Amino acid sequence: MQIRRVRPEEYDAVGAMVRAAYAGDYTLNDEYLAEIEDVAGRDEVSEVLVAVDPVTGDLLGTITVPRAGERLIDDTAENEFDVRLLGVSRAARGRGVGQAIMRHAADMARSRGLDRLVLHTGEQMLPAQRLYERMGFVQIPEREFTIERDIGPLRILSYGLDVGRVTA
Fold this sequence. Notes:
Layout: E1 2-5, H1 11-23, H2 30-37, H3 39-45, E2 47-52, E3 59-65, E4 80-82, E5 84-88, H4 97-111, E6 116-122, H5 126-134, E7 138-139, E8 145-147, E9 154-162
Parallel strand pairs: 4-6
Antiparallel strand pairs: 1-2, 2-3, 3-5, 6-9, 7-9, 8-9
């Protein structure tokens, strides 16, 4: 598979893919749905990457990463590379797409001279947590928090990975 920057004509499809991937794991409120679907807005201030099947051109997955010297998450330290909104299409699940995207993110962190890959994930996103733990991520309890929403609270977990120790 090829991992590259999203193209403007793919924004809507990527937003729909992430929405579908997340909707299967927990209930999304309107504010978060709007954020997930605003791929163009994210790509203006960060880098939205996509994994693409080189034969068919199908979008397999996506992730949002910061531009060099910037960060996406407020509690990210100077030596850390933070990522957001990892999503894999339902059709591509179980094919190693999420792992390939996360390995690519770890490679980006190393190439920028950063030591650690960090992220937040919803407590209900068990498949994502299993992927992170297989790859060697460990929870960072002091960075976890709860979001109060009109549809009920959402516990957010934090994970980190020393980019020199990627496994799986």
